[in-house]
Design brief:
mainly alpha; two-stranded parallel ribbon
């Protein structure tokens, strides 16, 4: 939540908020969670979502329909 509050403040201070001032900004919480987990595990943050426009303000994001997962065929 500390990282989320930092992102929230940055977004508000730069005019880039993704929710009304009265609203809890779930985009910020999701992005912050991804960032913190990635940092703790020496990984790169990536959120797969349909809301790329909002999430990518904070961390890399891709539309889930643009992600291809190789099909594993049983032997």
């Amino acid at each position: 939540m500390i990282k989320a509050s930092q992102l929230w403040a940055w977004a508000r201070n730069t005019g880039q908020q993704t929710a009304n001032d009265e609203a809890l900004d779930a985009d910020v919480i999701l992005a912050a969670t991804s960032i913190v987990i990635a940092q703790e595990n020496s990984l790169t943050s990536m959120v797969v979502t349909k809301n790329v426009k909002h999430i990518e303000r904070y961390t890399p994001a891709k539309d889930w329909e643009d992600i291809s997962i190789p099909r594993i065929v049983p032997i």
